[in-house]
């Protein structure tokens, strides 16, 4: 009787025991991978602020790359948003999904801006714009904290001669000043901001901030 009752208890509890073990393993793995992004207000990390930022803007590919009528235009602005100003702005935003704009972050500081026009798009080298700008020296030491943000605002127009049409896109990317893409338990200073565009055969315009090797025309990460 006691032996049968014990067997019944084990049958009933074993799935719960295994589920608990699985959950603890998952939580442990998630903790080790996400520990660097755990919110710690106003942590001073000047070692994670690069002296210079490299901006790399690329039209990765387009159907009319070899068409002499094809061209691209892109206006951009890069801002630094201090940590306290960033979270104040978030609190002031209306609820619901929306497209962010620099004007919604009144504490932002301009790091760089410019406009690019490229009339020759044959090779990926000709479709890539690179610029190095001072960064750390522009940021007050007290504001060099872990959870400040970099804001990359852009407006792009690409005319594809083969498709005989122009495509447009504007928006904002937000980044931490550090780069923890390879190992989220540690990080290093972010030294490059990427902005990538792709025009599909159907005339759709995609964007990303994936890090890219020179000469890479694939879109898969």
General description of the model:
The protein is of the alpha+beta class and 221 residues long. It is built from two helices and ten strands; from the N terminus they run αββαββββββββ. A four-stranded mixed sheet has the order 4-1-9-10, with no helix packed on it. A four-stranded antiparallel sheet has the order 3-2-5-6. The longest helix has 33 residues, at 2-34. Residues 5-33 have low confidence and may be disordered.
In brief:
With 221 residues, the protein is of the alpha+beta class.
Present the secondary structure layout.
Blueprint: H1 2-34, E1 52-61, E2 71-81, H2 83-92, E3 109-118, E4 128-134, E5 149-160, E6 165-175, E7 178-179, E8 188-189, E9 192-199, E10 205-208
What are the salient characteristics of this protein?
alpha+beta; 221 residues; four-stranded mixed β-sheet; four-stranded antiparallel β-sheet; 35% strand
Strand portion: 25-35%
The largest beta-sheet arranges its strands as 4-1-9-10
**Helical run tally:** 2
Report the mean per-residue pLDDT as an integer: 84
Q: What percentage of residues falls in helices of 4 or more residues?
A: 10-25%
Which class do the helix and strand fractions yield?
A: alpha+beta
Largest sheet: 4 strands, mixed
The low-confidence parts are: 5-33
Helix and strand element order:
HEEHEEEEEEEE
**Rg from alpha-carbon coordinates:** 24 Å
**Structure summary, number of beta strands:** 10
How would the global form be characterised?
elongated
Q: In whole angstroms, how far apart are the ends?
A: 60 Å
